[in-house]
Predict the 3D structure of the following.
Amino acid sequence: MRSLGAVSLLLCACGGSTPPPSGPPAPRSAAAIQADSVRRSYTQADIDFMTHMIGHHAQAIEMARLAPTHGASSSIQVLAERIINAQQDEIATMERWLRDRSLPLPGPADAAHDHGGQGAHRMLMPGMLTPEQMRRLDAARGAEFDRLFLTFMIQHHQGAVTMVRELFGSAGAAQEDTIFKFASDVSVDQTTEVARMRRMLAAMPTETGSVR
């Protein structure tokens, strides 16, 4: 009996150390997935793209906000409102990406005009309007505003597409899912909008002359 009891104790001890059968992994929470995304590597090119695109979008919003007060046609006003809504949402996405990684946000001086310092660098971004172009747009009214708005916004959108292309051409950049999807969406959306604006520009009467 003592021998049988010893065997029973040994079996119990071994049984207590046996791990339970493995099952399917527990579903991961959205917060855990987001934390993993933040921990993944990103490059300086990614940071520069998100930081500079905030200023790039801010100038497009400033341009679009002129439409209601500058005699823009109803179709231009609808387009301008669409640009404001879309690019405000995208700015919020870019700012959130930077905050989640404890990276600095661009200041107000980087928003739309060249105020010196970083603003001077920002004016080198593709498609950005010069101060003179912004003054011309602000001085225009009616059909001339419509024509300048479309011409300059096409330039501006094409610059954003160029920025995406440069990002994808940078070694190791755009490997994060968030960066890749965001940049791809910017390229597709703005390319589509450029095509729409070119059709609008081509449909305008030519009496006001060409824009130089």
About this structure: The chain has a mean pLDDT of 83.
